Structure formats: structure tokens, C-alpha cells
Amino acid sequence: MAEKEYKEIDVASLDSELAAARTLEEGKGNLYIKIAAVVAFFMTAFHIFTGLRGLFDYVTQRGIHLCFALTLILLTQPLYKHVFKDKFAGNKAFRVLCRIIDIALIVLSWVAWRMAQDEVHHLADRLSKTTWMATFAGAVLVIVTLECARRVLGYIMPVLALIFVAYALAGPHLPLAIAHRGYSLERICKFLATDLDGLFGNTMSVSASVIFMFVMFGSFLETSGCSDFINNIAISLTGKIKSGPALSAVVASGLMGSINGSAVANVVGTGTFTIPLMKSRGYKAPFAGGVESVASTGGQILPPVMGSGAFLMVAFTGETYINIVIAAVIPALLYYWGCAAAVISQSELANVTMMDPKDIPKSRDVLKSGWIYLLILGVLLYCLLVAQYSPLYSALWATFAVPVVMLFDREKRFTLRDIIPAMVKSAFGAISIVIGCACAGIVVGMVSLTGIGVVFGDMMIQAAHSMLFPSLVFTAITCIILGMGLPTTAAYVIASSILAPSLIKLGLSPLTSHLFVFYFACLSAITPPVALAAYAGAGIAKCSPMTTAVEACKLGFAGFIVPFAFCYNKAMMMQGKPWEIVTVFISAFIGVTIMSAGFQGWLLWRLNILQRIIFVAGGMLMFVPGTVTDVAGLVLILLMLGINMKKWRKGKAIA
């Protein structure tokens, strides 16, 4: 019976991007889906056009971006599917009524945006005073945005936004510690529609420019067949060793996750191949699902693309893109090495068999047929890191490079039949991010209007008695809670607006504070009880979601430790003297290896419970900043190795 329940997990329902793709695929004969496909094409064309000629003013660029997304959602996620649990969907009259309401909401959304645009353009003439149109525009856009978020993301995000709106309304009636002057509903609507900190603020700015461009690049790259190339090259590099199938999942999922920025979508995209492969070689189902979940989640913290997190950090911290990428290198390497070391240990504990040499493609053959993809990725890296173009232009030129470069491959050559569907897919893939950023924009607007971020930060600092470590622990827990069931971008935006300022007050740099928050917003995808990435992995592996989530946390333990480490030691973020950076990296590298062995229970020999505890403690000491702790941890590790020398002699060859 349990096995049957695991098989019935609807993986696509866990992620709005996957749900949109399924809607597009299954509804090809539906008139509304056809109209939505046309709208999606024009949405992508709009972004390409503005990317080439230059962006419009903020309310025009971001407003059109939002209205396109709202239109797509209202066309593809009709009201009758999202009320009364689909109870009356079979009634034709009810469906017609719901469609009329959806069409009315689409028209109102575009009218409201046009009103907001007119208000913003005439603010100077009216001495910053607004009219009733600003109130109407704000009310309509907020209501439609919340309704669309409910249909696409579920209830968590819109309810959270409503809580912050209610806080803004109820200010004078709240306890003194969190009380404020209070704002009328009219003032809130006008603020959200016309202010730069409102609905069309920084969050929507990044979504309407950079994030959409990278979603488009990912869609074009996926259409070209790059994911198959990455899977094949990963297997060709790791397939000849015992832990090869699992290591190939780590490599392939990390690379793809960095580009597409969605943990759940990446689990499904690469996990449908890697998870069955791991199970066939002898890995247990929860472990196989956990490996894929951890690797896919970590893609968002892996330079140089980092999903969309790096671009949001550029907007929020004022740091250059290259500085953010450099700071994220060592933490990302330690995260993935921790996962890889765990995989190697587990391959010795489980009854894992080697892959058949016939199933392992030769690296030379893979590169011969897929070198063209390296050229495309090379264009992106050159634009980002060498020429240092803006992320928007880098993604745009990399997208253009896909069909141009593919002309040199006769079998995979791009045609209009490929380009147009890729453009449609780009818009469908972006709608969840757009609506998530719009909802997050409402929250950030209320935080800005009421000042709750400062109040909350001061309360946190007082509760932690101005000590950094308790504040970091509290921030980490809050980020994980806020990230439950939310897209990473939305979780990061909300958490950073509330929590990052307090960490800055305690002496951390803006970049360190935001990177810490972003790490734990990402890790919420594998943290029980929600753990959407682990749930998706369990759906493919056909096992318990909670068991998979626990395995994922054990595999991704480095992700929970590294953020604390770089808050106390800037060298972990490649800031400082070269010898300090090298020393810190070596110490942390050893610590991750030993801790991974302790968590899994194998390091050249099978460890008992006492040995596992000692190794975890020794590895943790290697992470704590300071020469004394490094030496103490190293001595503890070497002492254990020396005492058990007879046990690990047989494991030398494996090492």
C-alpha cells in the first residue's frame, strides 16, 4: 500500500514551472492555451526588444512584464479549477462564468497598469500628489496579483502578503513594541502602485530585466539538447568508479541547477535519469532521491550564474556581480564536496555495483558530439566574467548564441520551429518567478512603509543580547520557515528585507549578510517538513518524502555550516591575503571530508557510533576560525586514524 502511495506523488504539482510546462503540453488543442501561447511569444519578444533598445521607465517596463504574467496565469489556470476543489468544473455554465471573470481580470489588470503609468508620469506636474486612479490601480493590481499567486504558488505567499498589509492597516492598535502610525487602505494602494518601493520596486526590476533573460537562455539551451550533453559528460567522467552514478548526479544537477535556478524543476529534469540509475546500481531509494535533491538545490548557490540569486543581490547590496560570484566560490565548492564525499562513503556501505562499461560513454565521443554546447556556455562566461557586460546583456547575447552556434551542427540545427516554441516556453517558465516577485514586492513595500524591518531587527538583536551567533541561528531558522513552499527568489527577497539589516547592524557586511540569508532560503527546499525538492526526488525514487528529506539534510550538511563559517572568517569568501584564503580552504576542505564520513559512517573502514561522533566533532573544529581549533581538530582526526590503522589498511586502495 505504501509503495502505491509513493507512485501517486504528482511531481509536476510541486513546482509552478513544471505545472506551466505540463499545461502547455497537455492543452495544445485548447483555445485558451493557444491564445496563451501567442501571449507568451509576445512577452518574450517584448523582453528581447527592450533588451536591445534599452529598458522603458520603471512603471512601463515592470508593469507590462507583470501584466503579461497575470494574463498567462488567468488564461492557463482558470478560476473553475481553483474554487470548490474543482467540484463544479464539469458544469458548462459555471466554466463560462469563471472564464468571463478571468477575462475581466485580464482587462482590469492592463487598465490598472495604464492608470498607474499615467499617475507616475504626471507626479512632477501634480507636485507628487496622486488621484483616485492611483488608488484604483493599486487595489486592482494587488487583488489580481494575490489571486494569481494563489492559483500558481498556493496559499502561503498571498496569505503572507495579506498579513503584512494587515500590519500596515492596524499599526496604532498593535502592542507598543510593534506599533506604528498606521496607514489607510487608500494610502497603501497608492504607495504600491506608484512608489519605487512598491509593487514595481527593485524585486520586480530584477525580474523584468535580468531574471527573465536567464530563464529565456535556459529554455533555449534546454531546447538545444544541452541537458543530455551535461548528463553524458558527467557519466563519462565518473562512470568508471564505484560511486560514479551518484557522482554524475551531483555534477549534472549542479551545472543545470545553476542555469535554471529552480530546485524542483531541476530534480525532475535530471532526476528522471539519475535517480533510476543510482537505484539500479544498488543505492537505496531515499539516498538516491536525497543526492538529486541536494545537488539540484545547490545549483542556486553555484557560480557563475547562481540561478537568480546573484542578480537580486546586485540590486540589494550594491555589490558588483563579479564580487558576488567570487565570494560564493569557496562556499559552493565545500557544499558540493561535502555531498560528493558522502556519496563516496555511502558507495562503500551499500551494495553498489559498477556500471557496465558498455553503458559509459567515452569522454572523447561526448565532447566530439557536444563541444558546441561548451562554446555556447563560453559565450555566457565571456560576457559575464571577461567583458563584464551587464547580466541582462550577457544573457541576451548568450541566448542569441544558441541558434547561431547550433547552425554548425546539422543534426541539432535550430529552425523557426525550434525558436518560436523556445520563446513560448521562456514566458511559461518565468510566470512563477514573476508572480512570486510581485507578491514579494507587496511584502517589501509594506516593510518599507511601516519600518517593521528595523523594528524586527532591533527586537532580534535585543533577544540575542547583541551577540552574533544567536542572531545567525535565529535568522537561519526564520529563513527556512519563510522558505517553506515558496520559490527561492521570493523567500530570499522577503527574508533579506526583514533579517539582513539586523545582521548588518551587528557588523557583517551587506554581501555577507545577504549571502547568509540566501543560503538558508535555498536550503528550505530540502529541510523538513515541506522540503519540496526532496519531495520531488521521493516522487521519482518512489519512497518516503520525509526519509528522503532526512537523507538530503545529511548529504547537504555543509550547506548548514558554511554560512556560519564565512560570517566569522572573510577568507572563506576570498577576502583577505592569499595565504589566509588557502589556509582556510584547506582546513574547511578537510573538515567537510571528515564530517561527511562521520555522518555516513565510513572512512576507510566502517565506523561505530563513537567514532562517528568523534569524527564529526573533529571536522567541526576544523571549521571553527582559529589556529588552535584547527590544530585540535586535526590532532583528533589523526589520533583516530592512528588508533584504527589496522582497520583502514584494506581501504588504502579505495582512497
Primary descriptors:
mainly alpha; disordered N terminus; 29 helices; 655 residues
Textual characterization of the structure:
This protein is mostly helical. 74% of the residues lie in helices and 0% in strands. It contains 29 helices and no strands. The longest helix has 35 residues, at 416-450. The chain starts with a helix and ends in a 7-residue tail after the last helix.
Question: Given the C-alpha coordinates, what overall shape results?
Answer: globular
| Quantity of strands, as a count | 0
The succession of helices and strands, N to C, reads HHHHHHHHHHHHHHHHHHHHHHHHHHHHH
Overall pLDDT level = 85
Strand content: under 5%
How many helices? The count is 29
Alpha-carbon distance between the termini? Answer: 42 Å
Write the layout of secondary structure elements.
Blueprint: H1 2-7, H2 16-26, H3 31-53, H4 58-76, H5 92-121, H6 132-153, H7 156-169, H8 185-194, H9 202-223, H10 226-238, H11 244-260, H12 263-281, H13 285-298, H14 309-317, H15 321-349, H16 363-386, H17 391-405, H18 416-450, H19 452-463, H20 468-482, H21 488-505, H22 510-523, H23 532-541, H24 545-555, H25 557-568, H26 578-600, H27 609-623, H28 627-643, H29 645-648
Helix pairs in contact: 2-18, 3-4, 3-9, 3-18, 4-5, 4-9, 4-18, 5-6, 6-7, 6-8, 6-18, 7-18, 9-14, 9-17, 9-18, 10-11, 10-16, 11-12, 11-13, 11-15, 12-13, 12-23, 13-15, 13-23, 13-24, 14-22, 15-25, 15-26, 16-17, 18-21, 19-21, 20-21, 20-22, 21-22, 22-25, 23-24, 26-27, 27-28
